[in-house]
Design goal:
Length: 310
Amino acid sequence: MVTGKGGTGKTTVAGALALALAAGGHRILLVEVEGRQGLAQLFDTPPLPYVETRLAATQGGEVIGLAVDPEAAMLEYLEMFYSIKRAGSVLRKMGAIDFVTTLAPGLRDVLLTGKVKEAVTRQHNGRPVFDAVVLDAPPTGRITQFLQATNEVAGLTKFGPIHKQSVGVTSLLHGSETVIHLVTLLEEMPVQETLDAATDLTAHGYRLGQVIVNRARPELVGAAVLGKAGHADVGLLGQGLVEAGLDAGLAGDLAVQVEDYAQRQTVQHEAERDLEEIGLPIVRLPELNPPMDLGNLFDLTHSLDAERWS
């Protein structure tokens, strides 16, 4: 599972991770559950139906995409566990399914995670259909509630298919097959939300994987350029401009930009020190020029060594 504060690029990271895992001939399912069609935008395809759809091929492997729709998942659930197919269609026309999933949001999350469980456990000729399933999960502010919904529904329904399904999903989410990766930016608010999510998820017994720092800026301003007061050495910058065949008169404006970048570097260093408190491995992904396209997505896979994620 890949989660992160909104705007940190968790969908992009989920896509890049799926591509990295697919390398070497693996079949990977990439799932989204928020109804944003983020995967379609990321892979530059038409909106995904509620059908497993091939998104990309790489080094003999492939990434299959699935946008889970709660209403369609409920119809599938009714048919699978209660053999109700025709009645399910009638319920959809009446708006009853939308009413139920809105009235009981916990049930909606159970349906979504239940579909993920079905994909993880599905087999063909005694082998898993997918080598791995990557879930573009809800953001960190909602991830624990999303995962805990199965526990709550299991407690409310003491027996029957819904109870059995909830218990099965809970077992998978807390099992060794599931790991949650946290995506963040080296900025104060995303880092704080990452710290809070890590604490909360650990307290509820979920296994954390790695912290993925997205859009990390390179360190470009060395100590030699800045004086003790943190101001850029205009003379040194002017000398460098001359050596580069440029106008030394640009040194003043360049100094302002250098000092601004140096401040951003300091913020990044402080944020990364805070992240180290979690005690998880930290992976840094480079800042790429927007807009994000499939080429950029493949570039990110070079920073994601597939072996460390398997």
